[in-house]
Write a structure and sequence with these properties.
The complex is a heterodimer. By secondary structure, chain A is mainly alpha-helical. Chain A is built from 13 helices and no strands. In chain A, α5 packs across α6 and α7 packs antiparallel against α8. By secondary structure, chain B is mostly helical. The chains are: A mainly alpha, B mainly alpha. The interface between A and B is large, with 97 and 105 residues.
Chain lengths: ~350, ~325
């Protein structure tokens, strides 16, 4: 045999104490310098802290709200009465919230998807597409109080009298579910437009090319091929938009009227309610808080709890629409980011 | 195939819908600016300067002569502008590091099971209505703040000018920070998720520990996004009206930094909150134009912030991850 015996390597020198690594393959926090460890703990602290704040808010309102909430409160109308125990419940605000959200999302969803599809698939002429993008972006960042100011002036014009009622001296009231619904739809629109556009942009081009190769027009491609594929995405956008609509207060107080009960304007049944003034859970909470007219914190807590329950439910629903994959979770973050403006900075 | 494509009707319908939306949005901005102009025209540059207290000036408008010839237009918005600057500034100051740390936690440091629970919980904060935050602030946090930090001596020291309660600058800034943090977290998380793994893996391969990798590679790469997040959060904070109306003290007082620590406990009234406070009197023409003027200032500030952030971000984009 010509080979030498394999040499036994000398035993590895012991590492000096203090540089001992917990394992050879992972970067353990124990080995980091102090400042890095403090930063690591801070990150964990802030993350867990924010979760605790969210949980604390929900639990607090659950405890306070449930202690004042009763089936009676939930299903009776509001009566004006100095005696708190007989002054009725939150049925009117509850109805108001549901009606208003329905009106607003029925306007916002089809229009939002249509604009999203146009921006993604057609977008001609280019200057119009850019303008529409910028406009939707600007409205996403606009405070709701400004939209309320706008609505108060515009809908008081006689041309829009059909949307609301007239007061005794003939002036257009301008406050109704229809006007508030139109204004609120502007709030939900950017989320729906953004989610539709992004989802359509993520679809691979071979789908469109194959459809065109078969002789289908773009409209038919969109309707039959593309839209069904992005349904979870714009449904999620619409759900988050509904959450935002439900949570809005300023527009509701000033464009819906914040009355005690739902008033009916003249006209056939659905139209009479829609053209009348009303109240929702948000304006009810505001009115019953120290900042509003009444001072009934118990009712405010109860209504706030119901409102929070709706919002939590909508948020959870938005998360569970679709396949709950990584892409869906990311799109929820993007939808929240659109609260400040949809233009990706 | 020449001439119109087969789906020209659909294209025209969709284009009309988009144009209609554009028209409505443009109408919003034009209306606000047009209605705001008379207030600026009557006051000139003094609209922005100190010189009077907005509460009293509004009262003068409401109770004064109503005919156009003698209506009272005087308005000095400085206390409101100063209050807006303070609340927004402090809120962003608190929210920015919080959001960055939380975003790093969500994207990099949290193990998957923790992350699956933490993400929806923090997302929930974005959906909580502002009136709920306001209720929490005014019924729970304000009394606690008053009991803990505002002693009788402190109240006496400024009693001749203003009353100190729990509803003040600090509470407003804190709750506003909680409200805008989710937006900043959302934008930072989106940006961190687009940092190329090659960069972070390369850094780890060089022996840099995880935190330093995050700080020196990921964070540096998302600097434009963080700046954008700050701008958008500031815009959101500028427009918050209802919560601030409930919580900030609803007295149009300009806090005086020379008051020392009492400065932090003085009531404020940011511009959007002032709009909410006086919107009941919108039937008075001078009040209406003044409220629109306040709204126009908020609108233009938000638009200006977006523009400025775009301009400042351009140099940073050289080192950034392609978002």
């Amino acid at each position: 045999m010509a080979s030498a015996a394999p040499t036994v390597p000398a035993p590895a020198p012991k590492p000096p104490p203090g540089l001992y690594r917990a394992s050879l393959t992972r970067d353990s926090v124990r080995t980091w310098p102090l400042s890095d460890r403090i930063a690591y703990l801070l990150c964990w602290g802030v993350g867990i802290g924010l979760c605790l704040i969210a949980v604390a808010i929900v639990v607090f309102f659950a405890v306070e709200g449930l202690s004042y909430l009763s089936v009676h409160l939930l299903f009776t109308h509001e009566n004006a009465s100095p005696n708190q125990s007989s002054s009725g419940g939150i049925l009117d605000p509850l109805e108001g919230t549901l009606i208003l959200t329905a009106v607003a999302i029925l306007i916002a969803a089809p229009l939002g998807v249509a604009v999203g599809v146009w921006l993604s698939e057609y977008a001609r002429p280019a200057w119009l597409a850019r303008l529409v993008e910028s406009a939707v972006d600007m409205i996403a960042g606009t405070p709701d109080i400004l939209l309320a100011l706008f609505a108060l002036v515009i809908f008081a014009r006689p041309a829009f009298a059909f949307l609301s009622s007239r007061s005794e001296n003939g002036a257009v009231v301008g406050k109704s579910f229809l006007t508030a619904g139109i204004t609120l739809s502007l709030i939900a629109m950017p989320m729906i437009v953004g989610s539709t556009r992004e989802a359509l942009a993520l679809l691979p081009n071979h789908l469109r090319e194959a459809s065109h190769a078969l002789g289908k027009t773009r409209a038919r491609t969109v309707r039959k091929v593309l839209l069904p594929l992005v349904r979870p995405d714009y449904a999620r956008g619409a759900t988050l938009g509904m959450g935002r609509i439900m949570a809005d207060t300023a527009i509701v107080i000033y464009v819906l009227g914040a009355t005690e009960r739902l008033f009916s304007a003249g006209g056939p049944f659905p139209l009479s309610v829609l053209r009348g003034e009303g109240t929702t859970l948000t304006s009810y909470v505001y009115q019953n808080s120290p900042a509003g007219e009444g001072f009934a914190p118990q009712k405010a807590y109860a209504a706030a709890f119901v409102l929070l329950a709706f919002v939590v439910a909508l948020n959870l629903l938005a998360l569970f629409i679709g396949n709950r994959g990584e892409r869906d979770r990311r799109s929820v973050w993007r939808a929240i980011a659109s609260l400040g403006g949809i233009r990706r900075p | 195939m020449s001439g119109r494509s087969g789906d020209w009707r659909t294209e025209w319908a969709l284009r009309a819908a988009a144009a209609a939306l554009l028209g409505v949005i443009a109408l919003v901005f034009v209306t606000v600016l047009v209605e705001a102009w008379p207030s600026f025209a009557h006051n000139g540059i003094h609209w922005f300067l100190p010189g009077g207290e907005p509460d009293q000036e509004f009262k003068a408008m409401i109770t004064g002569p109503q005919d156009p010839a003698h209506a009272i237009w005087t308005f000095h918005a400085w206390p409101l502008i100063w209050a807006t600057i303070l609340t927004t500034g402090f809120a962003v100051l608190i929210a920015l590091p919080t959001a960055i740390l939380a975003a790093i936690f969500i994207v990099e440091l949290a193990p998957y099971p923790v992350r699956r629970l933490a993400e929806p919980t923090i997302q929930l904060l974005a959906g909580v209505p502002s009136v709920v935050y306001g209720l929490l602030g005014i019924l729970v946090l304000a009394p606690w703040l008053e009991a803990t930090f505002i002693s009788q001596g402190r109240k006496r020291s400024v009693a001749y000018v203003v009353q100190l309660t729990g509803a003040n600058l600090t509470l407003a800034a804190l709750i506003l920070a909680v409200m805008i943090t989710p937006i900043m977290i959302a934008l930072t998380v989106s940006a961190l998720q687009t940092v190329p793994r090659a960069w972070t893996e390369g850094s780890s391969a060089l022996g840099v520990n995880r935190w330093r990798t995050i700080r020196r590679v990921s964070l540096r790469a998302v600097r434009p996004a963080i700046l954008g997040a700050t701008v958008l959060a500031t815009g959101r904070a500028l427009g918050e009206a209802i919560m601030l109306n409930m919580v900030a003290g609803s007295r149009s007082f300009a806090p005086n930094p020379l008051d020392g620590t009492t400065f932090f406990f003085e009531p404020v009234q940011p511009m959007a909150a002032a709009i909410v406070r006086y919107i009941e009197a919108i039937s008075v023409p001078t009040v209406r134009h003044t409220l629109y003027a306040l709204g126009a200032v908020v609108l233009v500030s938000t638009a200006f912030l977006s523009l400025a952030s775009w301009a400042v971000k351009q140099p940073l984009k050289r080192y950034a991850a392609r978002a």
